[in-house]
Amino acid sequence: AFELKNYLSKNPEKIVNIIGHTDSIGEADVNIIMARDRATNVMNYLVSQGIEKAKMKVTSKGEEEPIADNSTREGQAKNRRIEIKIN
To answer: What is the pTM of this model?
Structure first.
């Protein structure tokens, strides 16, 4: 968080996009909510570390963009993730 805060102070035009993902277990609409909540928790942590909330955007992809096979436990675990992109 410290490095991100320093980066944003040196690059005030940048926005942090926090993207939540889930595995494909359960209903797709519930997974969207779960992924959004996961991303919101990360944003709240970053705010607690001194990063301005206005510099962040929360997005949810739910189960739409898997990076691993959802038919295995290992794949499911990899798909439950957060991505942070700086634009």
So the answer is: 0.91
